[in-house]
Design goal:
- Helices cover 99% and strands 0% of the residues.
- The chain is built from 1 helix and no strands.
Length: 213
């Protein structure tokens, strides 16, 4: 009996747990359904937003396509006008090209003539430079000869000056010697004349004394 009561208590507790689990599962189910509806509603709202954005993009695309068609048409018109202008310009440029070719040929002939003139001028300049170089070499040799002559003349003049200086020194020494001799001779003559005057004075005084006596 006790086992039956124990098993009954266990069954009752198990039934209570089952009931509690069923209630929890019901609450969880309701919550999951609410969350699912929220997610579905959010997805539908996002889909609606995307659909409206896609419609706006489609409208913008159609608008841009219409603008593109208008732009392409205007560009085609401008391209046609530009083609006509290019054709006219090419037609006018062809004549200009022919004139330019004629000017180019004339310029080439002038350049060739100038090249010939330049060659002649270079040859003439080269010959003139060669003549100038030869003349400069001849003048250089002449200057060297004149320099050697001047050097020889300067050495000869130096020797002559040295000899003349030595001669002048000798002549000066001779003159000084002659002057010294003349001075000595003059002194002797003056001394002799002084002695002679004194002797004559003595003789005169002696004659005067004799005459007085």
């Amino acid at each position: 009996y006790q086992r039956i009561e124990h098993q009954g208590g266990m069954l009752q507790s198990l039934a209570m747990e089952v009931r509690t689990s069923a209630q929890g599962l019901g609450v969880l189910r309701e919550r999951m359904e609410q969350d699912l509806w929220k997610t579905v509603l959010k997805g539908e709202a996002a889909m609606l937003e995307k659909e409206s954005a896609l419609n706006e993009i489609q409208r913008q695309r159609e608008k841009l396509w219409a603008q593109r068609e208008a732009l392409v048409a205007s560009l085609q018109q401008e391209l046609s006008a530009e083609q006509e202008r290019m054709a006219q310009a090419w037609k006018g440029a062809r004549d200009d090209w022919e004139a330019l070719k004629d000017e180019h040929n004339e310029l080439r002939s002038q350049l060739s003539q100038r090249a010939v003139d330049i060659d002649r001028l270079q040859q003439r300049v080269a010959s003139e430079m060669a003549d100038a170089v030869n003349q400069l070499q001849a003048e250089r040799q002449l200057i060297a000869q004149e320099r050697n002559m001047c050097r020889d003349e300067r050495s000869t003049l130096s020797r002559s000056l040295i000899e003349h200086r030595s001669d002048v020194i000798k002549q000066r020494e001779k003159i000084f010697t002659s002057m010294e001799e003349l001075a000595a001779q003059k002194e002797r003559v003056v001394h002799a004349s002084t002695l002679e005057g004194a002797r004559l004075d003595q003789q005169k005084r002696s004659a005067d004394l004799l005459l007085k006596n």
